[in-house]
Amino acid sequence: MEKPGAVNDFDWAAMADMLELEGETHSPYVRQALEELEHLKPRRILDIGSGPGVAACRLAAVFGQAEVTAVDGAPELLARARERAERLGVSLRTRVAEFPDGLAGLGTADLVWSGQVVHHVGDQQDALNRLAGLLEPGGVLAIVEGGLPSSSLPRDLGFGRPALQSRLDAAMAERFSRMRAELPGSVAVVEDWPGMLRAAGLTEVRSKTFLVDRPAPLDEGPRRSVRRTLERCRGGLAELLDAGDLATLDRLLDPADPAGVDRRPDLFLLTAKTVHFGHRPQN
Predict the structure, then answer these.
(1) Which of the residues in the chain have pLDDT under 70?
(2) What SS3 class is residue 275?
(3) CATH number of 13-279: 3.40.50.150, 3.40.50.720, 3.40.630.30, 3.40.1130.10?
(4) What is the pLDDT of residues 52-89, one digit of tens each?
(5) Dihedral sign, CA of 260, 261, 263, 266?
(6) Other C-beta atoms within 10 Å of 175: how many?
(7) Burial zone of 259 (CB within 10 Å; 0-12 exposed, 13-18 middle, 19+ buried)
């Protein structure tokens, strides 16, 4: 889930509902990724940039013998993580710490997870170096970066210009590049994540991509998540879209319109998340 602490000016606490809903909607990839790690016997796990704790609670459920700590810069999101853990009956600790400057006092762990956080830091290689520095010898770092954009809309909606999803993806990519360029201390880097993990001193590096496939018709939770995403597109991409596409988004977001996202039966959610794994050498 995207939650980088205080490395930019997003009000992450105000986005708590959306972050938790998105985390739940995308949770199949977390389950699949953790299956890759079930052979581990970690004593201590850190989820860096945990947000409201969806992945952290899954880590606590899979590794019941471990001390799992959700780490985030927003106390309000950590409160949400504690509530979630109590509701699910798992043991979870929380720690307020900014990313990446606040990591030094966390101690080390056998497994460090960080989901879609590093790309919010100006110097991504430095952030990876710091995450790798949290590992015990033999420990594993798993970072979620890359994959495929989410798709939810049919190519032809029955109104507006076809292929709206493709234009939203292009506008989001442009906005993302602008965000990266405007980050404090932004450093241009070839985003070869396995290569960057090796540069951080890790070995046995590998990547694997996991599918999130929620076919139509969507259940209530994923449907609400798609609505929240389109609402963010309408608010955040307005300057990059033409008037016709903005009008199409307005109709999609109209709760009274039978062709809107709240009612249409052909709404789906398809995306893929890539997880990169690396080990700290034993010596």
Answers:
(1) 1-10, 12-13
(2) strand
(3) 3.40.50.150
(4) 999 999 999 999 999 999 999 999 999 999 999 999 99
(5) positive
(6) 15
(7) middle
